[in-house]
C-alpha cells in the first residue's frame, strides 16, 4: 500500500486529482466513484479542471434503499450536485435505490460493473472500516447486495438528515469482491475519527472485522490521509 500524507483535505484532493489525471492519460475509461465528504475536494479539482469526461464512464459504489434520484439525500443527487452537473460523463451509474426489488436492482448493477470494468476506484472509509456500505462481517468476495447499516454508520450519516429517524437503514452496495477487481484504488481519509479505521486497514490483520483490510491483498492501492487520520499508524 502506498501512503501519501497531506496537510489538509484540499491537498488530498490535489494529490488524488494528479493520480486520476495520470490514469486517464494512460487510457483509463471507467472511474469507480464514492460519496461522503472525503472525495469532495477531489471532485472540486475535477470540476475546476479542463479535463473532459464525456468519454469516461462512472460507476458509483452505493445508494440508499428507498430514496429516488431526485431526493436531495440520495447519492444520485450528491453525485450530480458535486460532479456530474458540472462535468458530464458518457454514462454515470449509481445503484437504483428506488427499486424495492433487491434481487433485480443488485443483479442489474452487477451486470453494469461486469460490462464496465473499473480502472480506478475512489473510496472513502467508515469509522468502522467500511468501504462502500460493506459493513464489518461483509464477505470479501461479495458482489452487489442489499445491506443493513450499522448504528455507527447511521449515527455518522445523521448529519446529512433532519432527523436520525430519516436516515435509511438499508443500502444497495457494490461488494468487496467487485471493489477488489478495480485495477487501481485510491482511498481518502481525513480526521481523527478515521484514525482507528486507517490503522486497522494498513497495520491490522486482514479480517472481515475491518472490511478495508481486504485492500492489503490488492496490488495497487494508494491511501491519502491527513495527519489526524494517520495518527495511529505504526
Ligand atoms: N457509503 C459511504 C461511504 O462510501 C463513505 O466512505 C463513508 C464515509 O464518509 P465521509 O467521507 O463523509 O466520512 O460514508 C458512507 O458510509
Please outline the helices and strands.
Blueprint (H helix, E strand, L loop, with lengths): L1 E5 L2 H17 L4 E4 L6 H9 L8 E4 L1 E3 L10 H10 L6 E3 L8 H14 L4 E4 L21 E4 L2 H7 L12 E4 L2 H5 L3 E6 L5 H9 L17 E6 H4 L4
Parallel strand pairs: 1-10, 2-3, 2-6, 3-5, 6-9, 9-10
Antiparallel strand pairs: 4-8, 7-8
The protein binds 2-amino-2-deoxy-6-O-phosphono-alpha-D-glucopyranose (GLP).
The site of 2-amino-2-deoxy-6-O-phosphono-alpha-D-glucopyranose has 13 residues, from loops.
Can you put this structure into words, describing what you see?
Keywords: Carbohydrate metabolism, Hydrolase. The protein has one domain (2-187, 194-223): Rossmann fold. The protein contains eight helices and ten strands. It has helices at residues 9-25, 40-48, 75-84, 102-115, 151-157, 176-180, 195-203, 227-230; strands at 2-6, 30-33, 57-60, 62-64, 91-93, 120-123, 145-148, 170-173, 184-189, 221-226. Helix 2 links the parallel strand 2 and strand 3. Helix 1 (9-25) packs across helix 2. 43% of the residues are buried. The mean pLDDT is 97. The structure holds 2-amino-2-deoxy-6-O-phosphono-alpha-D-glucopyranose. 2-amino-2-deoxy-6-O-phosphono-alpha-D-glucopyranose (GLP) binds next to loops.
